[in-house]
TrEMBL record:
This is Nuclear transport factor 2 family protein. Pfam families: SnoaL_2. Keywords: Signal. Residues 1-31 form the signal peptide.
């Protein structure tokens, strides 16, 4: 929310470039076991969602921390569709990335903060650190599953800045209860509808009165450029809307579980601009939005695949 400054080149872009330029970037297809060896998805919707979340975590950890190419064969479709603009389509790119990162960044950490799943989608919010001691990047990964395997991927990444206007980091949970685990499933439908209405009214229609209707007075902000509280977001967005009167925000997909609702969207400040890919993650309690995390990434001029970021 409020992409007031250009997002730097995402960490995932850097890693994709590493994989594509490395001599290890292509793993021979003949060495790869068939992707069909992935476990059969468990019965029941709750079990299936839990399985999807587990698979998403295993793939991210396997690729970026362990340099494990086998995890790609096991859980990713060979015709994997990639929306990261710095990486080509296909599972082979992921395998090359795993090999290259394992060699060049042996201490890389994919520190996963929260994971939610709805339908065939999984959203993962992480702090990705290539070199120990650095702040790393805030990254949102969205995976689409098909037949128990990962079939498609979108992401948004932003470098973690040195300071914050609100005193919160980009990852912690401040609202109570202070847990990263999503709330009960029976809340999902209500909260998804609430956040979708709030998002459309505030950001699509640029109506600041949405803050009075949908935001709680204890609202906690994790966007490092916006002060804490409802007053902070009102001032930040008010100035943003005035600065960019032709702003368009197009909602692309929503992923919700329990009290957490993520919106993946395309922000364009002015006609003709490529804009930014943005993921806003909201936490809802008692019918009010009480916390917000996000990441913003500029849409580049060219792409390594034929897909958009959306």
């Amino acid at each position: 929310m409020t992409p007031t400054t250009p997002a730097r080149r995402t960490l995932v872009a850097v890693l994709a470039a590493v994989a594509l330029t490395s001599t290890l970037a292509v793993v021979p297809a003949a060495a790869a076991p068939p992707a069909a060896v992935a476990e059969r998805a468990p019965h029941g919707d709750a079990a299936r969602l839990a399985q999807q979340k587990s698979v998403a975590v295993r793939v991210l950890k396997g690729v970026f921390e362990d340099g494990d190419t086998a995890v790609v064969d096991r859980y990713v479709r060979p015709d994997y569709i990639q929306h990261n603009p710095f990486a080509p389509d296909g599972a082979e790119t992921l395998k090359g990335l795993a090999a290259a990162v394992g060699q060049q960044f042996p201490d890389a950490a994919y520190d996963i903060k929260r994971v939610i799943s709805q339908g065939d989608l999984v959203l993962v919010h992480s702090n990705v650190v290539l070199t120990p001691g650095s702040r790393g990047s805030a990254v949102f990964d969205i995976f689409r599953f098909q037949g128990g395997l990962i079939a498609e991927h979108w992401d948004v990444g932003q470098e973690v800045p040195e300071s914050s206007a609100n005193g919160n980091d980009m990852f912690s949970t401040v609202s109570r209860p202070r847990t990263a685990v999503p709330g009960p499933a029976w809340l999902t439908s209500f909260n998804e509808k609430l956040v979708t209405k709030a998002f459309d009214r505030l950001l699509v229609r640029k109506d600041l009165s949405a803050l009075d209707r949908y935001w709680g007075p204890e609202y906690h902000q994790h966007n490092p450029n916006i002060p804490d509280g409802v007053a902070g977001v009102r001032a930040g967005l008010g100035g943003y809307f005035q600065q960019f009167p032709s702003l368009t925000v197009t909602r692309k997909r929503v992923v919700a579980e329990g009290d957490l609702v993520a919106v993946h969207s395309h922000y364009v400040n002015a006609p003709g601009e490529r804009g930014q890919a943005v993921v806003d993650l909201f936490r809802v309690r008692n019918g009010k939005i009480v916390e917000h995390w996000d990441a913003l990434q500029d849409v580049p001029e060219t792409s390594a695949n034929d897909n958009t970021m959306f």
